[in-house]
Design goal:
Length: about 90
């Protein structure tokens, strides 16, 4: 009876250790997969942020060009108005 008990105990220990090794291997694989997907996620977020930043830069540049054009138009309008005033003043003299 003792021999069969020891044999059964050894078999249970072998099954338990095999199950633990299998579980460890699956956990390691999951950790590796998570690490890879984590890296992919980080790269995707970085790329997305770069695209957003590029869009913001383009929008800022467009807005700046619009401001410069408006400023130039005001300058030209003021210049034309000043020339018209000077012309009228010359006519009045």
């Amino acid at each position: 009876m003792e021999a069969s008990f020891a044999k059964a105990k050894r078999i249970r220990a072998l099954r338990t250790s095999t199950a633990l090794k299998t579980k460890l291997a699956s956990l390691e694989a999951a950790a590796n997969n998570t690490g890879g997907s984590l890296l992919e996620t980080i790269l995707l977020i970085r790329e997305e942020n770069e695209c957003k930043a590029e869009g913001r830069r383009a929008e800022e540049e467009k807005r700046h060009r619009g401001e410069v054009a408006a400023q130039e138009a005001r300058y030209l309008a003021d210049k034309a108005e000043a020339q018209e005033r000077r012309r009228e003043e010359k006519l009045e003299r």
